Amino acid sequence: xxxKYYPAHGAGLGLRKAFVRELPDQANNGINFWxxxxxxxxxxxxxxxxxxxxxxxxxxxxxxxxxLSIGGPAPLDEAFLQRLKRFLKEHHIRxxxxxxxxxxxxxxxxxxLPIPFTQQAVHYVASRIQRVQDILEQRIAMENVSYYAxxxxxxxxxxxxxxxxxxxxxxxxxxxxxxxVNSINHHYDAEAFxxxxxxxxxxxxxxxxxxxxxxxxxxxxxxxxxxxPVWQLLEKSYQYFGVIPTLLERxxxxxxxTELLQEVDIIHALQSKKGLDQGSDHIQHG
Length: 286
Fold this sequence. Notes:
alpha/beta, eight-stranded parallel beta barrel, 12 strands
């Protein structure tokens, strides 16, 4: 078991260009850290580049990638990884995470597609994660993703996730909303899923909103407010694992920033309820 650490603390928000211009009067309003998709900010200049650099000098930043395609059939884009490595160092980015999925073959598919839950896929993905960690010279976290079909399934989602984490010796970005979405769509117990995750590998948490297409079908959109069952599952996560830095994701249908900050305040309230002062190196095992 590796030493436990968190790359940030408290509550964070995904930085989106759609609300950057609202930030001058709000930047210190309860946000402890920011997260960006590096693909959207690498090489950006002008107003947005200046704003990003200003924030990066004041706040901890995490990068959450979109294009690594860790489960894809095409070779890893090592030229991109070298550019990413320079970007992470230049801006003192605290951490890097990606999705346990794939999004490309010869070109980008602009969606996060499910990796088959097979032992062969575990070996394939784990070797690619190890290569990424070698190139970046740092540990990375993989995020449990939402999925709507499981082609070629030979093992359960939880077993696949745990096998990849173990074999690659990487960390976990726990997306609580994705656990909830998958539990409804694939008819499993969300809390039972949480309890089987390796607590010592969780580096931070995502929460987000989604779209309820039917009683038994949820689409993970990041385009709505977080609903009560997801907040409740986040609270359960704190019960099982201790208070972990948690980030609110919102990708479109943006409300005024003040409304997003109200959701960030809910994260703070849940963390305070469970004891924010337990410290970044302490963890409770559920």
